[in-house]
Amino acid sequence: DSGVTQTPKHLITATGQRVTLRCSPRSGDLSVYWYQQSLDQGLQFLIQYYNGEERAKGNILERFSAQQFPDLHSELNLSSLELGDSALYFCASSVTETSGILGQANEQFFGPGTRLTVL
Amino acid sequence: DQQVKQNSPSLSVQEGRISILNCDYTNSMFDYFLWYKKYPAEGPTFLISISSIKDKNEDGRFTVFLNKSAKHLSLHIVPSQPGDSAVYFCAAKETSGSRLTFGEGTQLTVNP
Fold it and tell me: Which of A97, A99, A112 is opposite residue B42, by nearest beta carbon?
């Protein structure tokens, strides 16, 4: 158990709909990351928040948005869903937002993921 | 543009033998590398990491080697155990950021 929780575990919805995925980071972690894993692909970075502020953006679609709340939990909102959005969505957390090459706190700890199926 | 590549989608080894998983990268700005293990229906679990100032890091049965000139790293598991059967992801981080760039993963199967 990494200490990162994600809800729901599974989500089935229809094209055009909007869903919200939720993530609670490990206790004490200030940074939250969202990744998408499509079929037979590696994890693709979507977005990062640190202590409530957006820090970095990857290849996140405009239909997707996220936020981090004062209690540090984060939500990923996916709208106008398409079939191609079906994927595993992982949240990860780390203590800091970035670290040097000496390695301190570089590790990110992942939640169990939310499997989104768009029909 | 795949900056981190794991060219072997799968690897099968016998219990007790060595497993060697390989990873290549193209981005010279990567300075920290991590390996994650993933079981079905679970999130990736951090396994071992290495900084670019080192060429080897060891943790029990797991050793990661980094060859910066070749932009290549490898994960050695010895001895391999059936419980090591999982998908292994290589990941890399740039000096200036926190995001991880992942490879496509290698499915390791350790046969009893």
Answer: A112
